[in-house]
Write a structure and sequence with these properties.
This protein has about 90 residues and is an all-alpha fold. The protein contains four helices and no strands. The protein is rod-shaped, with a radius of gyration of 25 Å.
């Protein structure tokens, strides 16, 4: 607890932990890797959200809901929902 409160190290173990923590803080390669990992996770999250919206739009279209309502409810552009509607019609034919 003394290490956390900033009072310094109390034994060899906590000294080693403090040394490793300082090393990580100042390691630019680690920071760069972490930032890249964060960007990748954010991209994957956005991609997943987009896929979920498209799937919801397809389901709504299958239930006969009009594209204007689907666009408003999912946040997808109306043109994209209309394109999905056309693709759905082609697939059903």
């Amino acid at each position: 607890m003394r290490l956390v409160s900033g009072q310094g190290c109390s034994d060899a173990f906590t000294e080693r932990i403090e040394l490793l923590a300082d090393e990580v803080k100042h390691n630019t390669d680690y920071k760069r890797q972490f930032m890249e990992w964060e960007r990748q996770k954010a991209y994957e999250y956005r991609k997943g959200m987009q896929e979920a919206k498209l799937e919801a739009a397809r389901n709504f279209l299958a239930e006969g809901i009009v594209p204007e309502i689907i666009a408003r409810c999912t946040g997808l552009p109306l043109e994209e929902v209309q394109k999905l509607a056309k693709e759905t019609c082609v697939t059903k034919a």
